[in-house]
Amino acid sequence: MNILVVDDSAAMRNMIIRTIRQAGLGDHDIAQAEDGAVALEAIRKSVPDMILADWNMPNMTGIELLEAMNEEGIKTLFGFITTEATADMRAKASAGGAKFLISKPFSVESFEKVLGAVM
Amino acid sequence: MSVLMAERLDRKSDGDYPDIHKHWDSIHGVYAARVLPGQYYVTNAKDEMISTVLGSCIAACIRDRVLNIGGLNHFMLPEGEGGMDGVAARYGTYAMEHLINDILKKGGKRQNLEIKIFGGGKIMKGITDIGAKNIRFIKQFLATEGLVAEAEDLGLEFSRKVNYFPSTGRVLVKRLRSLHLENIASEEAAYSRNLKQESVGNDIELFD
């Protein structure tokens, strides 16, 4: 499985990748992108099996990335990992076709539950 | 009392930061926003200073040096795994992201960030140096992010009072004597107890 982690913080990207591995999903190929715009370029070239995206990012936010993918007809498993998670954000995520939202600070257990349910 | 004086006694809390109390500080001629353990605050107001008192906790003072928008956080790592893989580091990264995200949301740019770090004192007797663990984290976090602290006052057996002026980047740090230690230590102990719950993080939502 190819997973793309999208977050503007390098420390957070590292933390998400470590947590994916700690959740027992270490045998997947994991790539990273620092914002939605960089992610979209990569996705156009090769669509990953799953995208884990932050919400607030410069250039292109996580929800803008999801909406751009929808406009271009790109379908893949999409989930948010975000610091802010208001009711409005959750509704937008769900309407955009995201499969899940994990709030930070996250745990290995939350990754196991969510990724176990959607994969 | 004049109207001006009355207005200056207090300033309403910002809607984004309802828990941050502000009062007029006549010594510095600015409104002082007090940040307690676990809180953070970002402002673009030229007439505001952000104050906090640190024991073993860390305060990162971060601002966009072009737009003069900035803020300060006050955090410590929860007890437990000391490495960069565990609950502690995940929480620390989250605490830093909150502050940086709010600066970016107000228009700040990552490449314009000016960073100063304080705290991490050894204020508790005993073998475990919580302050040192907090210092290791913040240094490693900044290195991973490719950010450089332009000023720091860390470690040693001091607690510190920090006054930060985000519009200019000026920081006044006062190393405090042992007289204040007991209060600061008990405040941090209460924060540490709450952190055990807060830092675990298990908020997930699966959509249909």
Descriptive terms for the model:
heterodimer, A: 119 residues, alpha/beta, Rossmann fold, 5-stranded parallel sheet, 45% helix, 20% strand, globular, B: 208 residues, alpha+beta, 60s Ribosomal Protein L30, Chain: A, 6-stranded mixed sheet, 5-stranded mixed sheet, CheY-like_superfamily (chain A)
Question: Could you give a short description of this structure?
Answer:
Chain A is an alpha/beta fold and 119 residues long.
Structure, explained:
The complex is a heterodimer of chains A (119) and B (208). Chain A has one domain: Response regulator (Rossmann fold, 3-Layer(aba) Sandwich), CATH 3.40.50.2300. Chain A is built from five helices and five strands. In chain A, helix 2 (36-45) packs parallel to helix 3. Chain A is of the alpha/beta class and 119 residues long. Chain A has a five-stranded parallel β-sheet with strand order 2-1-3-4-5, with helices on both faces. Chain A has helices spanning 10-22, 36-45, 62-71, 87-96, 108-118, and strands at residues 2-6, 29-33, 50-53, 77-82, 100-103. Chain B has 208 residues and is of the alpha+beta class. Chain B has a single domain, classed as 60s Ribosomal Protein L30, Chain: A (2-Layer Sandwich), CATH 3.30.1330.200. In chain B, the strands form two sheets. A six-stranded mixed β-sheet of chain B has the order 1-2-3-5-10-11. Chain B has a five-stranded mixed β-sheet with strand order 4-7-6-8-9. In chain B, a hairpin with a 4-residue loop joins strand 2 and strand 3. The longest helix of chain B is centred in the middle third of the chain and has 19 residues, at 87-105. Strand 5 of chain A pairs antiparallel with strand 12 (204-206) of chain B, so a sheet runs across the interface. Chain B: Probably deamidates glutamine residues to glutamate on methyl-accepting chemotaxis receptors (MCPs), playing an important role in chemotaxis. Chain B: It comes from Spongiibacter pelagi. Chain B: Keywords: Chemotaxis, Hydrolase. Chain B: GO terms for molecular function: protein-glutamine glutaminase activity. Chain B: Belongs to the CheD family.
